[in-house]
Design goal:
Blueprint lengths: L1 H25 L4 H26 L8 E3 L5 E3 L2
Antiparallel strand pairs: 1-2
Length: 77
């Protein structure tokens, strides 16, 4: 269920981002800037937030290594 939910969030973010770029390239007077720039910005924010959520979730920290303050790598048992 988590994978499907993440996939849908990523799909919405990529649609906003790519749709905004297409609107900006269409060069429609006023409307390409009115809808294109905000959709690109919202798409980028959604992408950043979804990747952050992915790294904090069950898919992140799968390496089993912990880096200490002195730079040494401690294996987690």
């Amino acid at each position: 269920m988590l994978g499907f939910r993440f996939l849908m969030i990523m799909l919405v973010a990529m649609t906003l981002f790519i749709g905004g770029i297409i609107l900006l390239l269409a060069k429609l007077p006023f409307w390409s800037y009115y809808f294109g720039i905000p959709s690109v910005q919202i798409g980028i924010i959604f992408l950043i937030l979804s990747f952050e959520r992915l790294m904090r979730g069950p898919f992140g920290r799968s390496s089993g290594k912990n880096i200490g303050e002195d730079g040494s790598i401690n294996l987690i048992a």
